[in-house]
């Protein structure tokens, strides 16, 4: 169907459109018009992806000079593939409707592991191995050496691509990873490099977050993407953690040992080269004197995405003399390494800021701040000069040099914590140096600065206003959309008491309480008797789950549950978990029924969907607060309070609720799906917790579903499940418009729709208020 | 106004906001809505479609007697309630399908007795869908192809303990054209959805007791026949009921063949149905002759099964205002008060809602049509 969104002609490849999709597009268009950033929340299963794609592509076609590229960032490879499939559908619709073959190029990009077609390299199991092997076949100096020695192994796909592929652009079309591989095989070109090269002129790029947020990768891949791009972060509810992880460094004794080996290898290689090819080192020296001028020019002319590891100031200067020659630099690294080793020999926990660390290192081993800042660049240069084939071996020393650069560059936003042992095992010495980023805005800042529009979207982004604050940007639109439903297919229940009126809560004081554990067991037992097929239960942590399950076993609750359903448990071992998941699904499929016990923030809670019978109920035992005794978290909370005026409690609750919402949201993956959402903790009934749930869940929580006992919840659940089991006529009682040949004008519907709009307005108002305050 | 059948006790049901259903019209009156509701409740009828059906049915009813049957959400508990409804079902079933069988027995009385006995069963353990289906299948697969093979499962439990892969069994059922229907007492179970979808059966989950009854009664109607099912001629006997005249001194009381194996029931009697082939005596029809294996039915039985083949056409609904002439129902002669009337497509007689339902559900023929056929004679 064709839609008219404020004057923009949008092709939509389905016959029906939900009102929330329409309003989503409307908001999106306004964001693009204003050339600003946006935060949009819409529940999963309402066609978020297709709304995004069809509007942005329509915009691209209407204003080719305003928006040149869409960069769609998703989290996992299956999600990337899903986006590409939607895109394919849209493109087919376009060519059917307009009758002309469009010249859009859309492609997915993933790691070498997923794209390599070299028979030997692609058979390697780990991504790092593939990367290393590939590098050893395709690095420029290897290929240069090959001119003199043709017996060296080489990747014929890369050679072919290098010889021909760059001149011939990828023909327009939609390419997923397999399409790229097929195309590569046909032409004999390397799909990975072809894709990396093609994203520069592609209209739509779909890839993982890390290609944009992780400075090490972004520098390689996304540096040259056009400024007039729209960047979309899908499933972005955890974006702050991704940012923080990409900037944080953890150093253990193992890292240091490996680093020591790396440094020794460097030393040996330098000696060897000095005997054979001293001119090369001299050439490098000359280049370093001139400094990083080129990088500076490029950044000024706005060609590159800025790299947060490469701060502006160092671009202006030459590499300092103390680390300019290769030997001196290796000596410098040695000293730095020894210093780190001495720091790791502590007996008690140390927490210090970056300036304190710098002062200490200056006092102890006389290392200045300036050479530290150049460390990362200098190492890259050295590795290039020494023609080291397998970069993967040098990950340890790269990590250390990145750490050196970061610690000397940012005086704020980072903290250094050295822990001699883990809290749980105080007798086993396992010193770790956490260099932890506390400010997610550092990693994402270049993205906001460089690109015209950045859209942050997910099914669970409530409360919306916190994201702009922690990511430090000013959105032009913030909106939350609800789900219009033909029937009430979700049933959130807050169970606050056991049948014996004992308050249910996972809070610290009652964690060991026998009565609470028994009541939790009773809840699961009762639910296992009335919920068909699959139940997913989430605990707040692995430790808590272990305690409770052990206790249930002793009380015989597990045995009773097993009469109704089989029990599977998620563990920290990935292989074990995927095995459990497989068996769980089998048990749901053949009618035996199963319960999956898993952990909020675990693999299951983030990435696995439990559609239809795989998840008829989700039970959330307790509020999934992050482990608050962690020093890293404490430091981050302190930082948030000081820098962004976000109170600790607010942030903790926000974080807990977004994970809870993620967990319970696993069960509803579309409008035909249905499921129970059971929040088993009395604290959920409080307004501050409840108010932070996404609006599409909040809407269905009424006074009758607050602070229930187990029995009451069972009654409500039984009724709900019977209602849902009635044959579901696919009536489009949701106000949906049927597409016509003409551009359909939009009708404002009554009821729910108007309500949705009112909430939207409220969001606007509160945002305006924020701006006013700011 | 007729009260809806009480669902257990009022306070045990969910919280109902009955007033929210009511809507005021422009003048602020509630009359229109109230009438609408009344009308809807009267008109709970199925759509009558003409389909080819099988009139000889073989139906296996499997009742789950697992632990979950003890649940008290149906009063007094699920098992008792189910069995009570099953008695009604068996009666209705034989009334509508006299020449069919439930669990390979023709005698409704036997079933009811068995059901009564089952009330005292203690429900323990987990059910196995696989085992029950397999057992039913073992007997059903020997049934001739012109009859339907059906299994009706009343499933209360949400879990099943199977000795083997149930999906293999579903394939077998499908290939043998066994139609499996399930009535769930608690919630939708995936494996039942697949089972019924694959074998072409119905899957329903009850809301409450009255809904349960409704769903059961749905299974009284024979299922539509698939075009592939074979047709064949069957030998049937139509014995006359003969009672020896009281004056006849030679008449000797004799035993009915059907009561020979059971100690209970009436003993000697004078009259009865005599098999036209072997002269065995039976007191009740329909029955399969124990001696020569002939199916014995009476003509009205056959006729009642027959109406499934030629169902009465649905009457055309039209608003009362359009009616010309007298506003009287042709059947009950009462005044037409409801806003809709129903017209027979062949004789154009007008009926009210109640009579329409009665004619379609019970009579199965339009009284006016029959009346007009008779008059020319």
From TrEMBL, chain A:
GO cellular component: nucleus
Pfam families found in the cross-reference section: DEAD_2, HBB, Helicase_C_2
Top-rank lineage group of the source organism: Eukaryota
Keywords: 4Fe-4S, ATP-binding, Coiled coil, DNA damage, DNA repair, DNA-binding, Helicase, Hydrolase, Iron, Iron-sulfur, Isomerase, Metal-binding, Nucleotide-binding, Nucleus
A GO BP annotation: endodermal digestive tract morphogenesis
Subcellular location: Nucleus
Catalytic activity field: ATP + H2O = ADP + phosphate + H(+)
Cofactor section: [4Fe-4S] cluster
Residues annotated as domain Helicase ATP-binding: 7-285
Record carries keyword DNA-binding: yes
Top-level EC class: isomerase
Gene Ontology MF: a single term: hydrolase activity, acting on acid anhydrides, in phosphorus-containing anhydrides
Coiled-coil region list: 249-298
Chief location: nucleus
Enzyme Commission numbers on file: 5.6.2.3
Stated family: Belongs to the helicase family. RAD3/XPD subfamily.
Protein name per UniProt: General transcription and DNA repair factor IIH helicase subunit XPD
Organism in which the protein naturally occurs: Lates calcarifer (Barramundi)
Gene responsible for this protein: ERCC2
TrEMBL record, chain B:
PROSITE patterns: ZINC_FINGER_C2H2_1
The organism's place on the tree of life at top rank: Eukaryota
Zn finger spans (C4-type): 275-292
Domain (C2H2-type): residue spans on this chain: 344-364
Keywords: DNA damage, DNA repair, Metal-binding, Nucleus, Transcription, Transcription regulation, Zinc, Zinc-finger
GO molecular function: zinc ion binding
Pfam families, per database record: C1_4, Ssl1
SMART domains hit by this protein: C1_4, VWA
One of the protein's GO biological processes: nucleotide-excision repair
Residues spanning the membrane: none
Cellular component terms per the entry's GO annotation: transcription factor TFIIH core complex; transcription factor TFIIH holo complex
Places the protein is found: Nucleus
Family as reported in the entry's similarity comment: Belongs to the GTF2H2 family.
Name of this chain's protein: General transcription factor IIH subunit
Upper classification of the organism: Eukaryota, Metazoa, Chordata, Craniata, Vertebrata
